[in-house]
């Protein structure tokens, strides 16, 4: 599917969120990730595709990815991502991942640091949305 960049938010000095609209409806579970493909003339050995956790919750209208950027040593992919302008379109595909809440009868403890919090944003907002959790 094609996704169009709607907004780029600076979360901290080196963390940014990118909010995309999809050209067609799709479903995912909180905690899953998706692959993004950004054509880049300066692609590195890892190519032009990377996966990122979908940091937006499934009930939210758009797809959000959040990432930390090292502006000096960052990969060519992250530089291409950062240089996207509002209105630019890229490819997104193949939703995957098993880091989801499937048993609402269990108690969970979430521990994360740094940018590793992105799946928790999606999961916690989703749990609140279905009235399983009061945040």
Task: Throw out a few tags for this protein.
6 strands, six-stranded antiparallel β-sheet, FNR_nucleotide-bd, oxidoreductase activity, globular, 2 helices, FAD-binding FR-type domain-containing protein, FAD-bd_FR_type
How does this structure look, described?
- It is a single chain.
- The protein has 135 residues and is an alpha+beta fold.
- It has one domain (2-129): Beta Barrel (Elongation Factor Tu (Ef-tu), domain 3).
- It has 2 helices and 6 strands, in the order E-E-E-E-E-H-E-H.
- The chain has helices at residues 76-82, 118-129, and strands at residues 2-10, 15-22, 33-37, 49-53, 63-68, 89-96.
- The chain has a 6-stranded antiparallel sheet with strand order 4-3-6-1-2-5, with no helix packed on it.
- A hairpin with a 4-residue loop joins strand 1 (2-10) and strand 2.
- The longest helix has 12 residues, at 118-129.
- It is globular and about 50 Å long.
- The mean pLDDT is 92.
- Residues 1-102 form the FAD-binding FR-type domain.
- It comes from marine sediment metagenome.
- Its cofactor is FAD.
- GO terms for molecular function: 2 iron, 2 sulfur cluster binding; flavin adenine dinucleotide binding; metal ion binding; oxidoreductase activity.
- This is FAD-binding FR-type domain-containing protein.
């Amino acid at each position: 599917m094609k996704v169009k960049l709607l907004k780029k938010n600076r979360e901290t000095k080196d963390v940014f969120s990118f909010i995309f609209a999809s050209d067609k409806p799709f479903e995912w579970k909180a905690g899953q990730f998706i692959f993004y493909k950004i054509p880049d003339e300066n692609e590195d050995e890892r190519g032009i595709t990377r996966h990122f956790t979908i940091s937006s919750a499934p009930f939210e209208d758009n797809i959000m990815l959040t990432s930390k950027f090292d502006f000096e040593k960052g990969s060519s992919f992250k530089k291409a991502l950062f240089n996207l302008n509002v209105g630019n379109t890229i490819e997104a595909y193949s939703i995957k991942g098993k880091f989801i809440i499937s048993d609402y009868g269990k108690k969970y403890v979430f521990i994360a640091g740094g940018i590793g919090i992105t799946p928790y944003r999606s999961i916690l907002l989703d749990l609140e949305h279905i009235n399983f959790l009061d945040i």
